[in-house]
Amino acid sequence: MAKKKIPAAPSIRRLPSYLHIIQQVLKDGGDYISGTVIANELNLEPIQVRKDLAITGIIGKPKRGYPIKELIKAIEHFLGWDSSRKAVLVGAGNLGAALIGYDGFRDHGLNLIAAFDKNPEKIGKKIQGIEIFSFDIVSEKIKKTSAKLAILTVPSADAQETADLLIKAGINAIWNFTNVKLKVPEHVTVQKEDLSSGYAMLCVMIQADALDKKNA
Predict the structure, then answer these.
(1) In the chain, how many domains are there?
(2) Which residues of the chain have pLDDT under 70?
(3) Do residues 181 and 91 both lie within one domain?
């Protein structure tokens, strides 16, 4: 069976920003919102916003825009944020601890049920109510809880070996925060977050802005 075609990544990445703006308008008592309002908030073209929202299946009303409550539901359903997903985190270092502490995951259906680490000083402790278990029992715990998603924040040298073990235990989706491009079977989905690329983009933008001011 052919895989379902996924819309362009930039459109998907913009949807959470749209959702934040739309939810704020709802809190302020609004019933409708136009693509132009969203575009102005994010310095985008209105036609781009309308194209992005179209992938959720919702259609705006002429001269009124989008019904806010329906639009929120459409975006959350498209993103899969209206359903709950059990997840584990492997690697409870600084980055892992920061991710555990992010409350927004719960709001979007990500139910983090356990964290794992090899450091004996961390095992048995809790971060934001999430217990850290020994990595030695990661397979047992995953099978017992039926978790299907893993957040990977281990050292890069351990990334592939850890991913192999997680997949063997039943994980079929990995959010990869390491620098390693993982080799996985076709049935496993991997989303790689390259923090250095984001920082590189920020640095280039800072330099470009400084040059523009210098030449002004």
Answers:
(1) 2
(2) 1-7, 216
(3) yes
